[in-house]
Design brief:
Distance between the termini of chain B: 59 Å
Number of domains of chain A: 2
Distance between the termini of chain A: 28 Å
Structural class of chain B: alpha+beta
Number of strands of chain A: 4
Strand content of chain B: 15-25%
Number of helices of chain B: 24
Number of helices of chain A: 19
Oligomer: heterodimer
Largest sheet of chain A: 2 strands, antiparallel
Radius of gyration of chain A: 23 Å
Largest interface: A-B, 69 and 76 residues
Shape of chain B: elongated
Largest sheet of chain B: 7 strands, antiparallel
Helix content of chain A: 55-70%
Radius of gyration of chain B: 34 Å
Helix content of chain B: 40-55%
Strand order of the largest sheet of chain A: 1-2
Shape of chain A: globular
């Protein structure tokens, strides 16, 4: 580790928080239906949408109405995307006449993009036409991101006041988020990326003659704008198979920094939004501090592991000062690679600019552990905030009794119903991650997909289901994921990780909204300040992370210790 | 004084926590409670029991087939111990209530009642067994009789010894009408007689209810307990998933995990500590209240007491000493202060009211004036017409009374401006002015004042730090009420309060999301008592009030409301602290067990054995033993309760989080290591 490396990392993080503040306030304003500087241009479009769909944006929905609308829309989008991927051959903008996807791959891919996972079992530019990438994938990157943010707004509102029957209007939330938040930033970021050298063209390839006189086909396409929303919506599905390690997705250090900022922008901004909506900025700061603790710790571990290099290679005479550069791009170096990968796994983005498979075991484990915590520090756009709030509820419930009152979070009493729903949501992660991984590890048909033996193989399988359930979408690589078993089970894991978590969350929001808001007093459990931050961190680790310890011990931890002992598999 | 005596009594009872007959009964009960049909109410301990059965069967099978069985049987033994310690905790908690119930039962022994044929005629009665009395019957009770059942006094006045239920031997007065008309079955008339209309059916009298409450026969899970149970069940499920899936992970990794090892891991991870102590904590909380001579009709009420954030307190008797007392004598212009004092003393000589006595005491203490009643003096008693009282002697007349009455008696239209100003000042300061006259001359005024109880202001400040608002309820006018409210340091007051005002105030406060506690004794308090989240009825109060409240204070001391809130908080804090401790324990258990079970497959994972435990087997065994012992070690804390301190929520949280959160992380590291060292010493490792 170097001082300049840390300076680079901290500077980018500071930049993110600085940029996130105004965005957070902006989100709170559009969530409340207030006018913003974008309204003169975009308000007529918004009204047009409502008129077309016959939606009254002022009509509030109770939690069931909100959930039904949300699920209906996503179900419809899943079917549309599935059809589009299957029928690719017959659809326009397919100059290379790429064939349609197999049913299981189309299922996996459609599920992946509807759940904001962006797990890519397909081969990127070699499987999908520019048409499929644009209306198929890119449009879903907007919708799935907006879905997550809308749900987060719904639960934030539930804390805002007492005795509410409704959580807001899902259609209005979705439209406003896309129009006033995602589109403007994505357009600006897309232009910036084009300026930095990312292509945006309908041509699928350029032919070049190399110095040796060989003919080379260089793949390209409408990359820049897909890249923008891929990061901004914490989607992570790249145009190219190599994702953000590919020079056309991420040409240089500046583009890498820009993409890093975009990934973290909305998840961080939402903590400020939350503080604004519940009318207590300190509540948002506390959540931000929790996120900060985990992100900095993860960066420290991963950076340390990567900078220290591989002792086995050092023994062969490689300069340990180089660190572990296997699988990393020279143009980014270790600090920016580590930062990028921590940030894209801390959020549910899942983009990669270096190969996790080639990380040191501990470096790879930090990414895996961040996802296993539930994608909540800060997690995906919206989904991270509501996940974090579920853990905050549990933390308050566990420790809140210690001040001698029925626990309450932001004036809302936490009782049997909320605890039941929160536990239901939290159960999904170990059930899907550990359940599917354990099953796969004892099935020869599944273990055949593994690229490595021993603990590293276990890590590959564990990572796949972790990534799918956490709706992250990054891959450890080394796993041949396009098999019948993996396509299906990973698809189901994505579905569970997204909607089996989201529905209890909305139900909690409904229950909380109805409750009276107890005014704070000196007898109230304080949910801001370092004490609560420490408590929440502890609860996240103990109740969200420790159940993965046995599995991690047999994967990355075993690999790390055997590696230190000089043993390979 | 009575309260002091009782606290001492409670302490001796607490020190007798583990006296031997109680203990042997609890041990027997803890085996009886192993019945799975009963244990299923406690999901964590039920799972532990199922696993214990499983491991036992496995160990015995190994024993029968000659396979190595020692380790499995050792694990099974300590798993059973874990279950037994949990049932033991509950049994001990219940045992303490049972002793109290026994003494109550003695008061309920069969008595004969004198049932009146005609309620108006006390001469004719039939003797019937108390158990045959129906609601609405009238009975006669005379000196020496036990009152056969609960009822209302319809005729007569008597002193009653209620020590059977209150533990207080000084007799209390019971009379028809008013707020002291309720009598309780099992108490004894000391003098005089009463005609009582029976209000309780046999088997549902106050004492019957008390016995059931104290024994915990009607114990239902409280809302917080239910929520906590769900959390614990959820955690159990999460760890069940983690342990069951571990089989797949282990098989891939070439590690062989036996059932005893997996069982040990699971039981160590699931929250057995709090699961085992949860019901004991609840029972002990109720019991603390009983020892404090307060009966709660449900655990829910005790829990609500902890949540209360608004206290409605009657001014008289709770905030002030109860009677207004003389505070100053203010002479009218041109009157000598000593003349005034002697005129006041003479005018008050015949006044036997507490106020009158306080005026005489003030004259004596401040001016050294203590006149004897002169020969031939004529006391003029207070009458509703004149609203004056005084003394006529040797042609001189002394009068004192309400200001306007005295002025009317003097036929004085325009009193001196100084006098009027003094009267207004007294009223503004919350006092009551009385005017005094002698022989047609206005002598001056007496300031009567409510005396705020010493120390009450500090109590209210303490309550404020706990986040509890105090509201004073009084029949006084706004000005008087405001002055006393400021002096006592309450947060709000209701002046000229009618029962309806109280009810409205409670409802309004509740819609703001606050929980209200109040104490009351009169029938007209009943609606407010029922509406309040915690309604403490006085034992001396009416039957209606006792029915409406969800707690009864046997000492009839409304100030106890404050302690009731503290007991409620203590219950919740104990539950939260032990939950936190239990969950924080898990970290160390991972470090003990994981390296032990994987060390065969990956010897390098021994690096995670940070406690340097002697062997894999001793590591697993130590964790299981610690897990069992910690339950029994915490039983005294669960029964006694974690002390509540009025230091504000932030400070309280910091303190408890440090002790039970951080302590919960560190303690098992030390405990497991110590047990492992002992095992190694004993050659078992």
């Amino acid at each position: 580790m170097t001082i300049s490396g840390w300076a680079e990392i901290l500077l980018v993080l500071a930049l993110i928080v600085f940029a996130a503040w105004p965005v957070g306030i902006h989100i709170a304003r559009i969530a409340a239906g207030e006018r913003s500087f974008l309204h003169p241009v975009l308000a007529p479009i918004e009204r047009g949408f409502y008129a077309l769909a016959g939606v009254d944006p002022r009509r509030g929905m109770d939690w069931r109405g909100y959930a039904v609308a949300l699920i209906l829309l996503n179900a419809l989008h899943f079917l549309m995307l599935y059809a589009m991927l299957r029928l690719q051959f017959y659809l326009p903008l397919n100059p290379d006449h790429l064939a349609g996807m197999s049913p299981r791959l189309a299922f996996n891919t459609a599920m992946s993009f509807v759940t904001n996972t962006n797990w890519q079992a397909y081969g990127g530019e070699t499987t999908l036409s520019p048409g499929s990438q644009m209306w198929g994938l890119t449009s879903h990157m907007f919708v799935s991101a907006a879905t997550g943010i809308a749900a987060a707004l719904a639960i934030a509102r539930a804390f805002a006041a007492g005795g509410m029957k409704t959580l807001g209007n899902f259609w209005a939330d979705l439209t406003r988020i896309v129009l006033y938040l995602l589109l403007p930033i994505a357009i600006l970021a897309g232009i910036a990326l084009v300026a930095l050298g990312v292509p945006q063209t309908l041509a699928t390839h350029a032919d070049a003659t190399t110095l040796e006189g060989m003919k080379q086909t260089i793949a390209m396409g409408p990359v820049a704008f897909m890249e923008a929303i891929k990061e901004l919506g914490t989607n992570g599905g790249g145009y190219f198979n190599a994702n953000s390690a590919h020079p056309f997705e991420n040409p240089n250090a500046w583009s890498s920094i820009l993409e890093t900022v975009l990934v973290f922008l909305i998840p961080i901004a939402l903590t400020f939004t939350f503080g604004r909506i519940v009318k207590d900025a300190r509540q948002g700061y506390a959540l931000l501090a929790v996120i900060g603790v985990f992100v900095l710790a993860a960066i420290a571990v991963a950076y340390h592991a990567e900078a220290a290099g591989n002792p086995l290679l050092t023994a062969l005479g490689v300069d340990p000062a180089q660190g572990n550069m296997e699988g990393k791009e020279l143009r980014f170096g270790i600090p920016l690679s580590v930062l990028f990968n921590v940030i894209t796994t801390a959020t549910s983005c899942g983009a990669v600019n270096a190969m996790l498979d080639s990380y040191m075991p501990l470096g790879g484990m930090t990414s895996m552990f961040l996802i296993q915590l539930g994608e909540i520090v800060p997690g995906g756009v919206g989904s991270g905030l509501y996940g974090l709030l579920i853990f905050a509820l549990i933390a308050v419930f566990v420790a809140g009794l210690m001040v001698g009152r029925t626990p309450e979070y932001l004036g809302k009493k936490i009782q049997a119903k909320e605890v039941k729903l929160a536990m239901l949501a939290v159960l999904i992660l170990p059930l899907a991650i550990l359940g599917f991984t354990a099953l796969s590890l004892v099935m020869p048909a599944a273990t055949a997909s593994l690229g490595n033996a021993g603990p590293h193989g276990l890590s590959e399988m564990l990572y796949a289901f972790t990534s799918a359930t956490g709706n992250n979408g990054s891959a450890f690589a080394g796993l041949s994921a396009d098999t019948a078993w993996l396509d299906t089970t990973l698809g189901i894991a994505m579905l569970l990780g997204r909607f089996a978590f989201l529905i209890p969350v909305l139900a909690i929001a409904g229950a909380l909204a109805e409750k009276v808001k107890v005014p704070p007093s000196s007898g109230t459990f304080p949910t801001h300040g370092p004490l609560f931050v420490g408590l929440l961190c502890g609860v996240i680790v103990i109740m969200g992370g420790l159940q993965f310890m046995p599995a991690l011990s047999l994967g990355p931890l075993a690999e790390q210790f055997t590696l230190l002992a000089g043993k390979t598999f | 004084m009575a309260t002091h005596a009782k606290t001492a009594h409670a302490e001796t009872a607490a020190s007798a926590l583990f006296d031997s007959p109680l203990l042997s009964r609890a041990v027997a009960d803890s085996f009886r409670k192993l019945n799975p049909a009963q244990l299923i109410r406690n999901p964590v301990i039920f799972v532990t029991e199922v696993i214990s059965v499983l491991v036992t069967i496995l160990g015995l099978r190994n024993l029968a087939t000659g396979a190595p069985a020692g380790f499995a049987l050792a694990i099974a033994f300590f798993l059973w111990l874990t279950v037994l310690f949990a049932t033991f905790a509950e049994a001990v908690a219940e045992g303490r209530g049972r002793a109290r119930a026994e003494s109550l039962r003695r008061a309920r022994t069969e008595t004969m009642a004198k049932r009146l044929v005609n309620p108006a005629d006390r001469a004719i009665f039939q003797p019937v067994a108390a158990s045959e009395l129906a609601v609405g019957d009238h009975v006669l009770v005379e000196a020496g009789d036990l009152i056969p059942s609960d009822g209302d006094v319809v005729q007569g006045m008597a002193s009653v010894n209620e020590s059977a239920i209150t533990g207080e031997s000084a007799p209390v007065i019971r009379e028809s009408g008013g707020d002291r008309s309720a009598v309780t079955g099992g108490t004894q008339i000391v003098s005089d007689w009463l005609v009582v209309r029976i209000t309780a059916a046999p088997g549902s009298t106050f004492i019957d209810r008390m016995i059931r409450l104290v024994e915990g026969a009607e114990r239902r899970k409280t809302p917080n307990e239910i929520a906590l149970d769900i959390l614990l069940a959820g955690l159990t499920l999460i760890f069940l998933i983690a342990v069951v899936t571990l089989v797949g992970f282990a098989r891939y990794s070439g590690a062989i995990l036996g059932v005893p090892v997996l069982a040990a891991l699971l039981v160590c991870l699931i929250p057995t500590t709090i699961g085992g102590l949860l019901s004991a904590i609840g029972i002990a909380g109720m019991d603390r209240l009983v020892r404090f001579n307060v009966l709660a009709t449900s655990g829910r009420a005790v829990e609500a007491a902890g949540d209360v954030d608004t206290l409605l307190l009657d001014k008289t008797g709770t905030i002030t000493l109860g009677n207004r007392m003389a505070n100053a004598f203010i002479p009218a212009p041109g009157v000598n202060e000593r003349d005034l004092a002697s005129a006041i003393a003479l005018a008050t000589l015949g006044d036997e009211t507490p106020e009158g006595r306080s005026i005489l005491a003030f004259a004596r203490d401040r001016f050294g004036i203590a006149p004897e009643q002169p020969e031939g003096a004529l006391v003029v008693p207070f009458s509703a017409q004149t609203r004056l009282s005084g003394l006529d002697h040797a042609g001189r007349s002394f009068r004192k009374g309400a200001v306007d009455s005295v002025l009317a008696w003097l036929k004085l239209q325009m009193p001196p401006a100084e006098f009027t100003a003094a009267i207004e000042r007294i009223a503004r300061a919350g006092g009551t002015p009385l005017a005094v006259a002698r022989d047609g001359r206005l002598m001056g005024a007496i300031e009567l004042k409510d005396i705020v109880k010493p120390g009450i202001r500090a109590r209210f400040a303490e309550l404020r730090r706990m986040g509890i608002r105090t509201v004073m309820v009084t029949g006084d006018n706004r000005i008087t009420a405001a002055a006393i409210a400021t002096e006592a340091g309450v947060d709000d007051f209701i002046a000229e309060a009618t029962p309806q005002d109280k009810l409205d105030y409670i409802r309004k406060t509740q819609t703001d999301g606050r929980l209200v506690a109040m104490a009351g004794d009169g029938t007209n308090d009943a609606p407010a008592l029922a509406q309040a989240d915690v309604g403490v009825a006085m034992q001396t109060g009416t039957q209606a009030a006792r029915e409406a409240g969800n707690m009864v204070d046997l000492d009839s001391d409304p100030t106890k409301l404050i302690e009731i809130v503290e007991i409620g908080k203590q219950l919740l804090i104990t539950r939260g602290s032990l939950t936190t401790f239990s969950i924080a324990n898990d970290i160390s258990k991972y470090f003990a067990i994981l390296p032990a079970i994987f060390v065969a497959a990956y010897p390098e994972l021994g690096a995670l054995n940070v406690m340097r435990l002697a062997s894999p087997q001793s590591a697993i065994l130590s964790a299981v033993i610690f897990n069992a012992l910690i339950i029994v070690a915490l039983v005294p804390l669960a029964l006694r309760g974690v002390r509540f301190r009025a230091i504000g929520a932030s400070a309280l949280l910091r303190r408890n989080l440090l002790i039970y959160g951080l302590g919960g992380i560190v303690a098992p590291f030390i405990g497991i290591k110590l047990i492992d060292m002992l095992l190694a010493l004993a050659g078992l490792a």
